[in-house]
Design brief:
By secondary structure, the protein is an alpha/beta fold. 44% of the residues lie in helices and 23% in strands. The chain has a six-stranded mixed β-sheet with strand order 2-3-1-4-5-6. Strand 2 and strand 3 form a beta hairpin. The chain starts with a strand and ends with a helix. 44% of the residues are buried.
Length: 195
């Protein structure tokens, strides 16, 4: 088993929380894991990305070479497109369709959507809307995205849910339950997209 994942987005969207939950699930599954993070101007709404490598054998490097990522999880559509050179030909892009416009010359959304539609393996969701409707909070959009990505991570859903309980447990039962609802909503929405 080997899964190479690039997580991308903008500072404050919860990319590193996704990485923490997947990492916790991987450890519980007895997998090896390496992670590399680039925060950039994350506190000012800049690019945030993380390389996350999971395997059942030791991993030599924490960086994913171009053309080798099995999965890109992106909370911002333009950021997802930015990392396409890392994606394998049969890899999946799971992305939010709602932009976080943080630069004055942000590309036209019709062009971004057209680029997304060209890709053979894409799940594109409005995770903020799903988070509000199912978990009651747009702050769980990152966990909706994690749920949508779970079929491609290579770790069972129950292990990811256990990772959420572990990572968010100190914040209380209400926060854990809200995030578990978000995880299930994302998982269900992705399944509907692929069917």
């Amino acid at each position: 088993m080997k899964t190479d994942i690039i997580l991308s987005g903008v500072g404050g969207q919860g990319i590193l929380s996704i990485a923490a939950v997947i990492g916790e699930a991987a450890v519980r599954d007895g997998l090896y894991m390496k992670q590399s993070e680039v925060h950039g101007m994350s506190q000012r709404g800049g690019d945030v990305q993380s390389h996350l490598r999971l395997a059942d054998k030791p991993i030599a490097s924490d960086l994913i070479p171009p053309g080798q990522a099995d999965l890109i999880i992106s909370l911002e559509p333009m950021e997802g497109l930015r990392y396409l050179p890392y994606l394998k030909k049969d890899g999946w892009l799971v992305t939010n369709i709602r932009p976080l416009i943080n630069i004055p010359d942000y590309p036209d959304m019709e062009k971004i959507h057209a680029e997304l539609e060209k890709l053979p393996h894409t799940v594109a969701l409005d995770v903020e809307t799903i988070a509000k409707e199912t978990a009651g909070s747009p702050r769980t959009a990152n966990i909706v995205m994690l749920g949508a990505s779970t079929p491609f991570v290579g770790i069972e859903y129950d292990r990811i849910a256990a990772g959420i309980r572990s990572v968010f447990g100190r914040k209380g039962t209400e926060v854990v339950e809200m995030n578990l609802k978000a995880l299930q909503a994302g998982y269900d929405a992705a399944r509907d997209c692929r069917d």
